[in-house]
Amino acid sequence: MSFELFLFYVFAAITVFGAACVITVRNPVHAAMFLVLTFFSTACIWMLLEAEFLAITLVLVYVGAVMVLFLFVVMMLDVNVEPLREGFVKYLPWGAAVGLLMFIEMAFLITERYFRSENYPIPAASAADYSNTQELGRLLYDKFLFQFEVAAVILLVAIVAAIALTMRRRPETKYQKPHQQVDVKKSDRLRIVQMPTEKR
Amino acid sequence: MLDGLILLITTVLKIVAIILPLLISVAYLTLAERKVIGSMQVRIGPNRVGWKGLGQPFADLFKLLTKEVIVPTNASRFLFLTAPVLSLAPAFAAWAVIPFTGDLVLADVNAGLLYVLAMTSIGVYGVIIAGWASNSKYAFLGAMRSAAQIVSYEIAMSFALVGVLMVAGSLNLGDIVRAQEGGIFHWFLIPLFPLAIVYFISGVAETNRAPFDVAEGESEIVAGFHVDYSGMAFAVFFLAEYANMIMISVLAVVMFLGGWLSPVSFIPDGIHWFFIKTSLMLFFFLWFRATFPRYRYDQIMRLGWKVFIPITIVWIAVVGFAIYFDIGPWFDIRSGVTG
């Protein structure tokens, strides 16, 4: 067993362990932390595939940004887990049916034509000065520019929609108007009064 | 097998050679901070332990080492004790790709800049987890404030770095420095001046230093996310904060001030330039703390989202045009890289 293979098994085991813990631990914050662990070890596996740009981006985007917001929400909402656990037996057949269906679908794809290992020869290891990032950039901004732009527009629409859905202008909300604060003059706030001194 | 073992041992030795001086720098940075602020406020600062107070960091260290680590009754014990490690580990890990000189770098990776960004973005977990696991409202409020601040300023900071990698044409930190060769007028500070300013101020906000230290606003929430930590657990947070400060300074030096390159061409380059520039940037951190009053929370958010992000976006567009039309002496570096 080569060292890379050994590392792969270590990271894969951590990933599977983390993913299993996400759905079994009771505390939502602990579950979110296990999801972070899962993402991180997945990034390590990608690193073994010499996809260093994708691996680092996974850490940067999912671990560094998405999961932080996730943790925020989980901590703020104080999710009550008990009602979610009710009716486990009632929903079990439905869940099992959906799971089985997904398993069959995946089994069709993975075992047959597309994912057979002989269809995928091991790619030749690239030279040390090969820049993964440059290659990806060339593909994204050159060959697949149109698709890239479409994806960007879809994301933009999603952002606009999310903000439009959640933004409510309530008249009673108070907020700062910085330009007013900056433009304020002494005469607006301060009144100087002349008073005669008190006689003893 | 033997080769692997030798490689392992040399790598570990290299890591020690980076971490040990870093720890000593952190220790003396705390002393420098107290001395600098002391002299700015016309005080003497610590001068009792050792010659002129030079033993003070070690006195502080032994004090913290011998104190008890208290775990609050209803704290989530495991996460409470993991949080300091979660904030310290990324602060140290990011040092792996920093080029001290052209050859003196632990890992000369191609995506070095992204790696640094990824590592610094993990650091926020230490803060959030510490605030949550303490089971204290003050700590939680501090953690929320600081996490929101870190996440917001990270965007402006990453955008500022996009400008750098556009001009340098590389994500490798060593190549970024090499692209600035040829004296002080070739440093990226000049063509990317707005980005450099945005980067450094965002860096101050990222590390939760004054004037952006609402996370530990003493008058409102005692000490922020680490209010329940004591002894060595607190010291680890302290260490992480100062290591991050040094990291931000070092990155500013690598990205905008030409790393190990000398400012004039007839004086040879060398690692001493790297240290001089880093010390200068660190002095700015201390100077800020002694000078500026703390920002209000909404002012911090406004500065990050409504001022810095638009500035960086505009300047990235300017840099893009300048590269496309080959304007100025600084943007002709790209021509060899595009291919």
Molecular structure report:
The complex is a heterodimer of chains A (200) and B (339). Chain A is mainly alpha-helical and 200 residues long. Helices cover 70% and strands 0% of the residues of chain A. Chain A contains nine helices and no strands. The longest helix of chain A is centred in the first third of the chain and has 26 residues. Chain A is extended and about 105 Å long. The model of chain A has no long low-confidence stretch (mean pLDDT 84). Chain B is mostly helical. Chain B has 13 helices and no strands. The longest helix of chain B is centred in the first third of the chain and has 39 residues. The radius of gyration of chain B is 21 Å and the shape is globular. The C terminus of chain B is likely disordered. The chains are: A mainly alpha (200), B mainly alpha (339). Chains A and B meet through α2 and α3 of A and α4, α5, α6 and α12 of B.
Structure summarized in a few sentences:
Chain A is an all-alpha fold and 200 residues long. Chain A has 9 helices and no strands.
What's the arrangement of secondary structure elements?
The complex is a heterodimer of chains A (200) and B (339).
Chain A: H1 3-24, H2 28-48, H3 52-77, H4 82-85, H5 88-111, H6 132-143, H7 145-166, H8 178-183, H9 186-189
Helix pairs in contact in A: 1-2, 2-3, 6-7
Chain B: H1 2-40, H2 56-66, H3 77-93, H4 112-122, H5 124-133, H6 137-168, H7 173-178, H8 193-206, H9 218-221, H10 231-256, H11 271-291, H12 297-324, H13 335-338
Encode the helix/strand succession of chain B as letters: HHHHHHHHHHHHH
Number of helices of chain B: 13
Give the integer mean of the pLDDT values of chain A: 84
The first-to-last residue Cα distance of chain A is 100 Å
Count of helical stretches of chain A: 9
What is the global morphology of chain A?
extended
